[in-house]
User: What shape does this take?
Amino acid sequence: MATPSEKLAESLEILKTLQDANGAAAIKAATISRTHRERLIANGFLQEVMKGSYISTKPGEKPGR
Assistant: This one.
């Protein structure tokens, strides 16, 4: 069974792949699975900017910056 750190690392790899492939700052909800999206949001790596659209963020960054 994978540890929480390994699961987060897997989600971060998927985020990196999406960023490299799309070349865009915004990530649509349909392009990433719910599990990975929720894991990245919970750990501060994704932030919803509009319903169904997300941007990558630094963990611990204040909203609006």
Q: What stands out?
A: The chain is about 45% helix and 20% strand. The radius of gyration is 11 Å. Residues 28 and 60 are 22 Å apart (CA to CA). The first helix runs from residue 4 to 22.
